[in-house]
Amino acid sequence: MVSSTSSLPSGPRGGPKHLNSSGCIIKSVPGRGRGVYAERFIPRGTVIEISPVLLFQKDEYENYGKHTVLDHYTFVWPENRMALALGLGSLFNHADPPNVSFSLDPPTESIKYTTVHDIQPGQELCIFYGHKIWFTPSEGMNTPERPVTPEDGWGGLGLIEAADTMGVAEEGVMEAVPRNPYEGGDPDDTINEEDLPFTRFKPIPEEEALESIRTVEAWVVDVPDPKHLGPLIKWIKQAKLESPDVAHLKRIRKDLTTKSTTLLLSLASTPPSDSPSVASAPLERPPLPDHLDLPEPYRAAVPASSALTTLSLELKNTIWPTMFTPKRKDEIEPWTRGQARWAWDAMRAAVAEAHSATALGEKPIAAHIAVSYKHSDDDLEGESISFTAHDTRTSTAHPLRHAAINVIRKLADYQASKYPAAPKSYLPIPGPSSDPASPTSTPPSTTVTPALAEPTQADPLAQNGTHYLLTNQTVFLTHEPCIMCSMALLHSRVKEVFYLYPMPKTGGCGSLTCLPQLKGVNHRFGIARWDAGSGVGGDEGVLRVGEEIDA
Ligand SMILES: C[S@@+](CC[C@H](N)C(=O)[O-])C[C@H]1O[C@@H](n2cnc3c(N)ncnc32)[C@H](O)[C@@H]1O
Q1: Is the model's pTM score more than 0.80?
Q2: How far from the centroid of its chain's Cα atoms is residue 98's Cα?
Q3: Which residue has the least CA distance to atom 22 on ligand 1?
Q4: I want to staple 316 with a disulfide (CB 3.0 to 4.6 A). Which of 62, 166, 303, 483 is the partner?
Q5: Ligand 1 pocket: which of 135, 141, 142 to mutate (most atoms within 8 A of CB)
Q6: Those residues with Cβ within 8 angstroms of residue 535's Cβ, 6 or more apart along the chain or in another chain
Q7: 521 and 376 within one domain
Q8: Is residue 509 part of a domain?
Protein backbone atom coordinates (compact mmCIF):
# COMPACT_ATOMS: atom_id res chain seq x y z
CA MET A 1 0.00 0.00 0.00
CA VAL A 2 1.27 3.48 -0.81
CA SER A 3 1.57 5.66 2.25
CA SER A 4 -0.18 9.01 2.17
CA THR A 5 3.14 10.85 2.54
CA SER A 6 5.06 8.88 -0.04
CA SER A 7 4.77 11.61 -2.69
CA LEU A 8 5.86 14.43 -0.39
CA PRO A 9 9.38 15.83 -0.72
CA SER A 10 11.61 14.53 2.02
CA GLY A 11 12.71 16.60 4.99
CA PRO A 12 15.19 16.03 7.83
CA ARG A 13 15.84 12.48 8.94
CA GLY A 14 14.16 11.20 5.77
CA GLY A 15 10.70 12.27 6.91
CA PRO A 16 8.33 14.41 4.86
CA LYS A 17 9.20 18.04 4.31
CA HIS A 18 7.44 20.58 6.52
CA LEU A 19 4.74 22.28 4.42
CA ASN A 20 5.45 25.93 5.09
CA SER A 21 4.14 28.38 2.49
CA SER A 22 6.67 31.13 3.30
CA GLY A 23 9.63 29.28 1.84
CA CYS A 24 10.96 27.71 5.09
CA ILE A 25 12.16 24.15 5.41
CA ILE A 26 13.61 22.11 8.27
CA LYS A 27 17.15 20.81 7.93
CA SER A 28 19.40 18.92 10.33
CA VAL A 29 22.99 20.09 10.69
CA PRO A 30 25.58 18.36 12.90
CA GLY A 31 26.25 20.39 16.04
CA ARG A 32 23.01 22.36 15.83
CA GLY A 33 20.32 19.70 15.38
CA ARG A 34 17.31 20.73 13.38
CA GLY A 35 16.99 24.29 12.20
CA VAL A 36 14.83 26.38 9.90
CA TYR A 37 16.28 27.24 6.51
CA ALA A 38 15.12 29.37 3.59
CA GLU A 39 14.19 27.38 0.55
CA ARG A 40 13.99 30.49 -1.62
CA PHE A 41 14.69 34.19 -1.39
CA ILE A 42 12.65 35.76 1.41
CA PRO A 43 12.51 39.56 1.55
CA ARG A 44 13.14 41.43 4.73
CA GLY A 45 9.97 42.13 6.69
CA THR A 46 8.25 38.88 5.69
CA VAL A 47 6.17 37.11 8.30
CA ILE A 48 7.50 33.59 7.83
CA GLU A 49 5.65 31.77 10.58
CA ILE A 50 2.88 32.24 13.11
CA SER A 51 3.08 29.46 15.67
CA PRO A 52 0.23 28.71 18.05
CA VAL A 53 1.53 28.06 21.57
CA LEU A 54 0.81 25.56 24.31
CA LEU A 55 0.78 27.37 27.68
CA PHE A 56 2.03 26.03 31.02
CA GLN A 57 0.98 27.52 34.34
CA LYS A 58 3.85 28.52 36.63
CA ASP A 59 3.62 25.62 39.08
CA GLU A 60 2.94 23.07 36.36
CA TYR A 61 6.11 24.12 34.62
CA GLU A 62 8.24 24.41 37.77
CA ASN A 63 7.21 20.96 38.98
CA TYR A 64 7.27 19.04 35.71
CA GLY A 65 8.06 20.78 32.41
CA LYS A 66 11.33 22.31 33.54
CA HIS A 67 12.79 18.86 34.28
CA THR A 68 12.17 17.59 30.75
CA VAL A 69 13.43 18.30 27.26
CA LEU A 70 10.77 20.99 27.09
CA ASP A 71 13.14 23.29 28.91
CA HIS A 72 15.12 23.67 25.68
CA TYR A 73 12.06 24.83 23.82
CA THR A 74 9.83 27.00 25.96
CA PHE A 75 9.42 30.76 25.79
CA VAL A 76 8.79 33.03 28.77
CA TRP A 77 5.16 34.13 28.54
CA PRO A 78 3.38 36.96 30.38
CA GLU A 79 1.82 36.25 33.78
CA ASN A 80 4.58 33.87 34.84
CA ARG A 81 3.59 31.27 32.31
CA MET A 82 5.76 29.39 29.84
CA ALA A 83 4.90 28.67 26.22
CA LEU A 84 5.83 25.90 23.84
CA ALA A 85 5.62 27.05 20.22
CA LEU A 86 4.00 24.54 17.92
CA GLY A 87 4.87 24.35 14.23
CA LEU A 88 8.22 25.74 13.15
CA GLY A 89 8.43 28.06 16.14
CA SER A 90 10.35 25.60 18.34
CA LEU A 91 12.96 24.86 15.73
CA PHE A 92 14.63 28.20 15.16
CA ASN A 93 18.22 28.00 16.34
CA HIS A 94 19.96 30.88 18.09
CA ALA A 95 22.17 33.54 16.51
CA ASP A 96 23.42 36.91 17.59
CA PRO A 97 22.62 38.96 15.70
CA PRO A 98 19.60 37.06 14.43
CA ASN A 99 17.93 37.43 11.05
CA VAL A 100 14.45 36.75 12.39
CA SER A 101 12.60 38.63 15.11
CA PHE A 102 9.68 37.23 17.06
CA SER A 103 6.82 38.78 18.92
CA LEU A 104 4.35 37.26 21.36
CA ASP A 105 0.69 37.79 20.75
CA PRO A 106 -1.08 36.84 23.99
CA PRO A 107 -4.63 37.51 22.73
CA THR A 108 -4.25 34.89 19.98
CA GLU A 109 -1.83 32.74 21.99
CA SER A 110 0.67 32.71 19.18
CA ILE A 111 4.19 33.86 18.30
CA LYS A 112 4.91 35.65 15.05
CA TYR A 113 8.30 35.36 13.32
CA THR A 114 9.45 38.05 10.88
CA THR A 115 12.64 38.34 8.82
CA VAL A 116 14.77 41.36 9.66
CA HIS A 117 17.02 41.06 6.59
CA ASP A 118 16.69 39.82 3.05
CA ILE A 119 17.28 36.09 3.28
CA GLN A 120 19.03 34.27 0.46
CA PRO A 121 18.08 30.71 -0.56
CA GLY A 122 19.78 28.12 1.68
CA GLN A 123 20.44 30.55 4.56
CA GLU A 124 19.51 29.48 8.08
CA LEU A 125 16.80 31.50 9.83
CA CYS A 126 17.73 32.19 13.45
CA ILE A 127 16.24 34.05 16.38
CA PHE A 128 18.02 35.54 19.39
CA TYR A 129 17.55 33.51 22.58
CA GLY A 130 19.15 36.07 24.89
CA HIS A 131 22.59 36.13 26.49
CA LYS A 132 22.25 33.36 29.05
CA ILE A 133 22.39 30.48 26.63
CA TRP A 134 22.85 27.01 28.09
CA PHE A 135 24.72 25.37 25.20
CA THR A 136 27.86 26.14 23.26
CA PRO A 137 26.86 27.75 19.99
CA SER A 138 28.23 25.82 17.05
CA GLU A 139 31.11 27.31 15.09
CA GLY A 140 30.59 30.59 13.39
CA MET A 141 27.83 31.55 15.79
CA ASN A 142 30.00 33.32 18.37
CA THR A 143 28.94 36.85 18.54
CA PRO A 144 30.04 40.31 19.57
CA GLU A 145 29.59 41.30 23.20
CA ARG A 146 26.42 43.11 24.07
CA PRO A 147 25.45 44.51 27.44
CA VAL A 148 23.38 42.02 29.41
CA THR A 149 20.02 43.44 30.34
CA PRO A 150 17.72 42.18 33.09
CA GLU A 151 15.32 40.81 30.45
CA ASP A 152 18.02 38.65 28.91
CA GLY A 153 17.42 34.93 28.76
CA TRP A 154 15.48 32.46 26.70
CA GLY A 155 12.44 34.30 25.58
CA GLY A 156 14.19 37.67 25.88
CA LEU A 157 12.20 39.69 23.43
CA GLY A 158 12.55 43.15 22.11
CA LEU A 159 16.23 43.17 21.21
CA ILE A 160 15.55 43.14 17.53
CA GLU A 161 11.99 43.78 16.59
CA ALA A 162 11.03 44.01 12.96
CA ALA A 163 9.27 47.27 13.73
CA ASP A 164 12.56 48.83 14.90
CA THR A 165 14.29 47.90 11.71
CA MET A 166 11.41 49.13 9.61
CA GLY A 167 11.74 52.55 11.16
CA VAL A 168 8.24 52.63 12.63
CA ALA A 169 8.85 51.22 16.07
CA GLU A 170 6.22 51.75 18.68
CA GLU A 171 6.23 49.66 21.80
CA GLY A 172 4.34 46.47 21.31
CA VAL A 173 3.17 47.45 17.84
CA MET A 174 4.63 45.84 14.76
CA GLU A 175 4.29 47.47 11.40
CA ALA A 176 1.70 45.52 9.46
CA VAL A 177 3.87 43.88 6.81
CA PRO A 178 1.48 43.20 3.95
CA ARG A 179 1.12 39.49 3.38
CA ASN A 180 1.70 38.21 -0.09
CA PRO A 181 -1.86 37.72 -1.38
CA TYR A 182 -0.62 35.03 -3.76
CA GLU A 183 0.74 32.76 -1.01
CA GLY A 184 -0.63 29.26 -1.15
CA GLY A 185 -2.90 27.96 -3.88
CA ASP A 186 -1.79 26.34 -7.10
CA PRO A 187 1.18 28.25 -8.56
CA ASP A 188 0.11 27.18 -12.04
CA ASP A 189 -3.32 28.81 -11.82
CA THR A 190 -3.68 31.52 -14.42
CA ILE A 191 -4.57 34.99 -13.16
CA ASN A 192 -6.77 37.28 -15.24
CA GLU A 193 -4.77 40.24 -16.52
CA GLU A 194 -7.15 42.69 -14.81
CA ASP A 195 -6.73 40.90 -11.46
CA LEU A 196 -2.94 41.32 -11.40
CA PRO A 197 -1.72 44.01 -8.97
CA PHE A 198 0.00 45.88 -11.79
CA THR A 199 -0.69 47.04 -15.32
CA ARG A 200 1.55 45.73 -18.04
CA PHE A 201 2.38 47.88 -21.02
CA LYS A 202 3.13 46.35 -24.37
CA PRO A 203 6.85 46.17 -25.03
CA ILE A 204 6.41 46.10 -28.82
CA PRO A 205 5.86 49.46 -30.45
CA GLU A 206 2.64 49.65 -32.38
CA GLU A 207 4.45 51.71 -35.02
CA GLU A 208 1.49 53.98 -35.57
CA ALA A 209 3.48 56.97 -36.71
CA LEU A 210 5.55 56.97 -39.87
CA GLU A 211 8.73 57.91 -37.99
CA SER A 212 8.34 55.00 -35.57
CA ILE A 213 8.35 52.38 -38.30
CA ARG A 214 11.52 50.35 -38.32
CA THR A 215 12.85 49.52 -41.76
CA VAL A 216 15.46 47.29 -43.26
CA GLU A 217 17.09 47.37 -46.69
CA ALA A 218 16.04 44.98 -49.43
CA TRP A 219 17.11 44.22 -52.98
CA VAL A 220 14.31 45.08 -55.43
CA VAL A 221 14.06 45.20 -59.19
CA ASP A 222 11.70 47.15 -61.44
CA VAL A 223 9.81 44.91 -63.86
CA PRO A 224 8.80 47.00 -66.86
CA ASP A 225 7.05 44.13 -68.66
CA PRO A 226 4.29 42.55 -66.48
CA LYS A 227 4.67 39.33 -68.52
CA HIS A 228 8.00 38.80 -66.80
CA LEU A 229 6.48 38.69 -63.31
CA GLY A 230 5.31 35.04 -63.48
CA PRO A 231 8.66 33.65 -64.74
CA LEU A 232 10.53 35.82 -62.24
CA ILE A 233 8.58 34.54 -59.23
CA LYS A 234 9.12 30.97 -60.45
CA TRP A 235 12.81 31.69 -60.82
CA ILE A 236 13.00 33.12 -57.27
CA LYS A 237 11.62 29.82 -55.97
CA GLN A 238 14.05 27.79 -58.04
CA ALA A 239 17.00 29.99 -57.02
CA LYS A 240 15.93 29.49 -53.36
CA LEU A 241 15.74 33.25 -52.80
CA GLU A 242 12.60 32.81 -50.70
CA SER A 243 13.39 33.46 -47.07
CA PRO A 244 11.40 33.76 -43.82
CA ASP A 245 13.10 37.14 -43.35
CA VAL A 246 10.82 38.64 -45.99
CA ALA A 247 7.71 36.59 -45.19
CA HIS A 248 6.09 39.67 -43.61
CA LEU A 249 6.25 41.51 -46.93
CA LYS A 250 4.36 41.15 -50.17
CA ARG A 251 6.48 40.26 -53.17
CA ILE A 252 5.17 42.84 -55.66
CA ARG A 253 4.60 46.59 -55.37
CA LYS A 254 2.47 48.28 -58.00
CA ASP A 255 2.67 52.05 -58.12
CA LEU A 256 -0.55 53.32 -59.65
CA THR A 257 0.77 56.84 -60.12
CA THR A 258 3.92 55.89 -62.01
CA LYS A 259 2.34 52.68 -63.33
CA SER A 260 5.51 50.81 -62.41
CA THR A 261 5.83 47.34 -60.93
CA THR A 262 8.67 46.42 -58.56
CA LEU A 263 9.60 42.98 -57.30
CA LEU A 264 11.16 42.20 -53.92
CA LEU A 265 14.14 39.87 -54.34
CA SER A 266 15.83 39.46 -50.94
CA LEU A 267 17.09 41.39 -47.92
CA ALA A 268 20.08 43.66 -48.51
CA SER A 269 21.03 43.90 -44.84
CA THR A 270 20.48 41.74 -41.78
CA PRO A 271 17.31 42.53 -39.79
CA PRO A 272 17.69 44.94 -36.85
CA SER A 273 19.24 43.23 -33.85
CA ASP A 274 18.93 43.82 -30.13
CA SER A 275 22.57 43.11 -29.65
CA PRO A 276 24.80 46.20 -29.48
CA SER A 277 27.73 44.33 -30.90
CA VAL A 278 25.97 43.01 -34.03
CA ALA A 279 26.07 45.56 -36.81
CA SER A 280 23.64 45.34 -39.69
CA ALA A 281 25.67 43.44 -42.30
CA PRO A 282 25.25 44.21 -46.04
CA LEU A 283 24.04 41.22 -48.05
CA GLU A 284 25.08 40.47 -51.59
CA ARG A 285 23.03 41.52 -54.57
CA PRO A 286 21.17 38.47 -55.87
CA PRO A 287 21.70 37.31 -59.49
CA LEU A 288 18.88 37.67 -62.04
CA PRO A 289 17.91 35.27 -64.85
CA ASP A 290 19.85 36.11 -68.05
CA HIS A 291 17.01 35.35 -70.45
CA LEU A 292 14.80 38.21 -69.14
CA ASP A 293 15.67 41.72 -70.08
CA LEU A 294 15.64 43.40 -66.68
CA PRO A 295 17.24 46.55 -65.26
CA GLU A 296 19.80 46.39 -62.44
CA PRO A 297 18.39 45.55 -58.95
CA TYR A 298 18.69 48.34 -56.39
CA ARG A 299 18.34 48.74 -52.61
CA ALA A 300 15.13 50.07 -51.07
CA ALA A 301 13.86 50.44 -47.51
CA VAL A 302 11.09 48.03 -46.52
CA PRO A 303 9.29 47.60 -43.14
CA ALA A 304 11.19 45.34 -40.73
CA SER A 305 8.04 43.63 -39.42
CA SER A 306 4.42 42.96 -40.29
CA ALA A 307 1.63 45.39 -39.33
CA LEU A 308 -0.16 44.77 -36.04
CA THR A 309 -2.84 47.45 -36.44
CA THR A 310 -4.76 48.83 -39.42
CA LEU A 311 -3.16 52.24 -38.97
CA SER A 312 0.30 50.73 -38.97
CA LEU A 313 -0.66 48.69 -42.07
CA GLU A 314 -1.71 51.82 -43.89
CA LEU A 315 1.59 53.52 -43.06
CA LYS A 316 3.76 50.51 -43.82
CA ASN A 317 2.05 50.02 -47.17
CA THR A 318 3.29 53.45 -48.22
CA ILE A 319 6.81 52.09 -47.80
CA TRP A 320 6.25 48.59 -49.17
CA PRO A 321 3.12 46.36 -49.25
CA THR A 322 3.15 44.58 -45.90
CA MET A 323 1.32 41.63 -44.36
CA PHE A 324 -1.34 42.33 -41.73
CA THR A 325 -1.01 40.16 -38.60
CA PRO A 326 -3.30 41.69 -35.97
CA LYS A 327 -2.52 40.62 -32.43
CA ARG A 328 -4.74 37.91 -31.12
CA LYS A 329 -6.03 38.34 -27.57
CA ASP A 330 -4.20 35.28 -26.38
CA GLU A 331 -0.86 36.68 -27.54
CA ILE A 332 -0.36 38.44 -24.22
CA GLU A 333 1.19 35.69 -22.18
CA PRO A 334 -1.03 35.13 -19.15
CA TRP A 335 0.52 35.21 -15.70
CA THR A 336 0.24 32.47 -13.11
CA ARG A 337 -0.28 32.67 -9.38
CA GLY A 338 3.32 31.52 -8.89
CA GLN A 339 4.62 34.39 -11.02
CA ALA A 340 2.42 36.91 -9.21
CA ARG A 341 3.75 35.64 -5.87
CA TRP A 342 7.31 35.96 -7.17
CA ALA A 343 6.69 39.54 -8.39
CA TRP A 344 5.05 40.51 -5.10
CA ASP A 345 8.01 39.21 -3.09
CA ALA A 346 10.44 40.98 -5.41
CA MET A 347 8.59 44.29 -5.10
CA ARG A 348 8.51 43.80 -1.32
CA ALA A 349 12.29 43.40 -1.39
CA ALA A 350 12.58 46.77 -3.16
CA VAL A 351 10.15 48.36 -0.70
CA ALA A 352 12.04 46.96 2.31
CA GLU A 353 15.29 48.32 0.89
CA ALA A 354 13.70 51.75 0.48
CA HIS A 355 12.66 51.61 4.15
CA SER A 356 16.28 50.86 5.12
CA ALA A 357 17.38 53.81 3.00
CA THR A 358 15.12 56.15 4.97
CA ALA A 359 16.57 54.85 8.22
CA LEU A 360 20.03 55.74 6.87
CA GLY A 361 18.96 59.24 5.93
CA GLU A 362 18.87 58.52 2.19
CA LYS A 363 16.01 59.06 -0.22
CA PRO A 364 13.48 56.21 0.10
CA ILE A 365 14.10 54.94 -3.41
CA ALA A 366 15.29 51.38 -4.09
CA ALA A 367 15.79 48.86 -6.85
CA HIS A 368 15.90 45.07 -6.79
CA ILE A 369 17.15 42.75 -9.52
CA ALA A 370 15.11 39.64 -8.84
CA VAL A 371 16.18 36.04 -9.00
CA SER A 372 14.50 34.74 -12.15
CA TYR A 373 11.09 33.18 -11.63
CA LYS A 374 11.41 29.47 -11.09
CA HIS A 375 8.45 27.29 -11.76
CA SER A 376 9.86 24.56 -9.54
CA ASP A 377 13.03 23.64 -7.69
CA ASP A 378 14.13 21.59 -10.67
CA ASP A 379 13.95 24.61 -12.92
CA LEU A 380 17.59 25.53 -13.39
CA GLU A 381 16.94 28.36 -15.82
CA GLY A 382 17.77 31.93 -15.04
CA GLU A 383 19.78 33.84 -12.49
CA SER A 384 19.88 32.59 -8.93
CA ILE A 385 21.29 35.68 -7.25
CA SER A 386 19.39 38.83 -6.50
CA PHE A 387 20.79 42.32 -6.03
CA THR A 388 19.24 45.17 -4.09
CA ALA A 389 20.38 48.76 -3.75
CA HIS A 390 19.02 52.09 -2.66
CA ASP A 391 19.61 55.67 -3.67
CA THR A 392 22.82 57.02 -2.12
CA ARG A 393 23.05 60.49 -3.58
CA THR A 394 22.57 62.10 -0.16
CA SER A 395 25.42 60.31 1.65
CA THR A 396 27.81 60.41 -1.31
CA ALA A 397 26.88 63.92 -2.44
CA HIS A 398 27.00 62.35 -5.89
CA PRO A 399 23.99 63.34 -7.98
CA LEU A 400 24.15 60.24 -10.18
CA ARG A 401 23.99 57.62 -7.41
CA HIS A 402 20.40 56.64 -8.14
CA ALA A 403 18.99 53.29 -7.02
CA ALA A 404 18.82 51.79 -10.52
CA ILE A 405 22.39 52.82 -11.33
CA ASN A 406 23.57 51.50 -7.96
CA VAL A 407 21.92 48.14 -8.44
CA ILE A 408 23.33 47.73 -11.95
CA ARG A 409 26.71 48.59 -10.50
CA LYS A 410 26.32 45.95 -7.78
CA LEU A 411 25.57 43.33 -10.39
CA ALA A 412 28.46 44.47 -12.54
CA ASP A 413 30.88 44.36 -9.61
CA TYR A 414 29.65 40.88 -8.77
CA GLN A 415 30.14 39.72 -12.36
CA ALA A 416 33.60 41.24 -12.41
CA SER A 417 34.54 39.40 -9.19
CA LYS A 418 33.05 36.16 -10.52
CA TYR A 419 35.17 36.36 -13.63
CA PRO A 420 38.46 37.75 -12.36
CA ALA A 421 40.16 36.74 -15.57
CA ALA A 422 38.20 39.38 -17.44
CA PRO A 423 40.40 41.41 -19.74
CA LYS A 424 41.48 44.63 -18.12
CA SER A 425 40.06 46.58 -20.99
CA TYR A 426 36.57 45.72 -19.74
CA LEU A 427 37.13 46.38 -16.07
CA PRO A 428 37.13 49.76 -14.39
CA ILE A 429 40.59 50.80 -13.36
CA PRO A 430 41.48 51.70 -10.68
CA GLY A 431 39.26 50.31 -7.93
CA PRO A 432 36.43 47.81 -7.99
CA SER A 433 33.77 50.20 -9.22
CA SER A 434 32.28 49.71 -12.67
CA ASP A 435 30.00 52.69 -12.33
CA PRO A 436 30.43 54.98 -15.31
CA ALA A 437 29.39 57.77 -12.98
CA SER A 438 32.11 57.00 -10.47
CA PRO A 439 34.66 59.78 -10.20
CA THR A 440 37.38 57.17 -9.61
CA SER A 441 36.69 55.02 -12.64
CA THR A 442 38.84 55.54 -15.69
CA PRO A 443 37.16 55.22 -19.07
CA PRO A 444 37.93 51.71 -20.35
CA SER A 445 39.20 53.07 -23.65
CA THR A 446 42.24 54.53 -21.92
CA THR A 447 43.27 51.12 -20.59
CA VAL A 448 42.94 48.96 -23.70
CA THR A 449 46.08 47.25 -24.82
CA PRO A 450 45.97 44.77 -27.69
CA ALA A 451 47.57 42.09 -25.55
CA LEU A 452 44.85 42.34 -22.90
CA ALA A 453 41.88 42.87 -25.13
CA GLU A 454 41.47 39.21 -26.02
CA PRO A 455 38.58 37.78 -23.97
CA THR A 456 39.50 34.67 -22.05
CA GLN A 457 37.47 31.50 -22.30
CA ALA A 458 36.62 31.71 -18.59
CA ASP A 459 34.73 34.92 -19.07
CA PRO A 460 31.68 34.59 -21.30
CA LEU A 461 30.43 38.05 -20.33
CA ALA A 462 33.67 39.67 -21.26
CA GLN A 463 33.18 38.31 -24.74
CA ASN A 464 30.17 40.59 -24.99
CA GLY A 465 32.31 43.39 -23.74
CA THR A 466 30.41 44.09 -20.55
CA HIS A 467 29.61 42.91 -17.06
CA TYR A 468 26.51 44.99 -16.67
CA LEU A 469 24.12 43.04 -18.88
CA LEU A 470 20.71 42.28 -17.41
CA THR A 471 19.56 40.19 -20.35
CA ASN A 472 16.41 38.23 -19.39
CA GLN A 473 16.30 39.83 -15.96
CA THR A 474 13.56 41.81 -14.27
CA VAL A 475 14.17 44.90 -12.18
CA PHE A 476 11.71 46.02 -9.49
CA LEU A 477 11.83 49.67 -8.48
CA THR A 478 9.94 51.58 -5.84
CA HIS A 479 9.78 54.60 -8.16
CA GLU A 480 9.59 55.05 -11.91
CA PRO A 481 13.19 55.43 -13.07
CA CYS A 482 14.26 58.83 -14.37
CA ILE A 483 15.44 59.29 -17.95
CA MET A 484 19.08 58.60 -17.05
CA CYS A 485 18.18 55.39 -15.20
CA SER A 486 15.71 54.26 -17.86
CA MET A 487 18.50 54.66 -20.42
CA ALA A 488 20.92 52.74 -18.18
CA LEU A 489 18.36 49.94 -17.87
CA LEU A 490 17.83 49.97 -21.62
CA HIS A 491 21.56 49.90 -22.19
CA SER A 492 21.89 46.91 -19.86
CA ARG A 493 19.30 45.04 -21.97
CA VAL A 494 16.90 44.51 -19.07
CA LYS A 495 13.94 42.30 -19.95
CA GLU A 496 11.29 44.16 -17.94
CA VAL A 497 10.91 46.88 -15.35
CA PHE A 498 8.25 47.00 -12.62
CA TYR A 499 7.75 50.18 -10.64
CA LEU A 500 5.49 51.19 -7.81
CA TYR A 501 5.20 54.98 -7.90
CA PRO A 502 4.99 56.81 -11.22
CA MET A 503 7.01 60.02 -11.42
CA PRO A 504 4.88 62.31 -13.62
CA LYS A 505 7.51 65.02 -13.99
CA THR A 506 10.69 62.97 -14.33
CA GLY A 507 9.80 59.34 -15.19
CA GLY A 508 11.44 57.76 -18.21
CA CYS A 509 9.23 54.67 -18.37
CA GLY A 510 5.88 56.06 -19.41
CA SER A 511 5.33 59.35 -17.55
CA LEU A 512 7.48 62.16 -18.91
CA THR A 513 8.64 59.99 -21.76
CA CYS A 514 9.05 56.30 -22.47
CA LEU A 515 12.67 55.52 -23.31
CA PRO A 516 12.13 51.98 -24.64
CA GLN A 517 9.52 53.26 -27.08
CA LEU A 518 11.66 55.97 -28.61
CA LYS A 519 12.71 55.73 -32.21
CA GLY A 520 16.32 54.79 -32.63
CA VAL A 521 16.85 52.93 -29.36
CA ASN A 522 18.38 49.52 -29.94
CA HIS A 523 16.56 47.61 -27.21
CA ARG A 524 12.99 47.49 -25.96
CA PHE A 525 11.85 46.25 -22.58
CA GLY A 526 8.53 45.51 -20.95
CA ILE A 527 7.10 47.89 -18.37
CA ALA A 528 4.62 47.18 -15.57
CA ARG A 529 3.26 49.84 -13.27
CA TRP A 530 2.13 48.60 -9.87
CA ASP A 531 -1.41 49.68 -8.99
CA ALA A 532 -1.80 52.27 -6.25
CA GLY A 533 -3.62 50.62 -3.40
CA SER A 534 -2.32 47.10 -4.08
CA GLY A 535 -0.79 47.23 -0.58
CA VAL A 536 2.67 46.05 -1.64
CA GLY A 537 4.21 49.37 -0.57
CA GLY A 538 3.03 49.07 3.04
CA ASP A 539 2.95 52.47 4.68
CA GLU A 540 2.64 54.59 1.54
CA GLY A 541 3.71 57.84 3.26
CA VAL A 542 7.24 56.60 3.99
CA LEU A 543 8.13 56.07 0.34
CA ARG A 544 6.59 59.21 -1.12
CA VAL A 545 9.07 61.63 -2.67
CA GLY A 546 8.55 65.02 -4.28
CA GLU A 547 7.30 65.01 -7.87
CA GLU A 548 10.36 66.92 -9.06
CA ILE A 549 12.80 64.24 -7.82
CA ASP A 550 14.43 62.18 -10.55
CA ALA A 551 14.33 58.67 -9.12
C1 LIG B 1 14.63 25.61 20.44
S2 LIG B 1 15.72 24.32 20.14
C3 LIG B 1 16.12 24.57 18.45
C4 LIG B 1 15.94 23.36 17.60
C5 LIG B 1 16.91 22.31 17.82
N6 LIG B 1 18.12 22.53 17.07
C7 LIG B 1 16.35 20.94 17.52
O8 LIG B 1 16.86 20.23 16.75
O9 LIG B 1 15.36 20.58 18.08
C10 LIG B 1 17.07 24.82 21.07
C11 LIG B 1 18.25 23.90 21.02
O12 LIG B 1 18.87 23.95 19.75
C13 LIG B 1 20.29 23.90 19.87
N14 LIG B 1 20.82 25.16 19.33
C15 LIG B 1 20.16 26.29 19.11
N16 LIG B 1 20.95 27.21 18.58
C17 LIG B 1 22.16 26.66 18.44
C18 LIG B 1 23.42 27.14 17.97
N19 LIG B 1 23.60 28.37 17.53
N20 LIG B 1 24.44 26.26 17.99
C21 LIG B 1 24.29 25.00 18.43
N22 LIG B 1 23.13 24.51 18.91
C23 LIG B 1 22.07 25.33 18.91
C24 LIG B 1 20.58 23.78 21.36
O25 LIG B 1 20.75 22.42 21.66
C26 LIG B 1 19.31 24.27 22.01
O27 LIG B 1 19.06 23.67 23.26
Answers
A1: no
A2: 27
A3: 32
A4: 303
A5: 135
A6: 178, 181
A7: yes
A8: yes
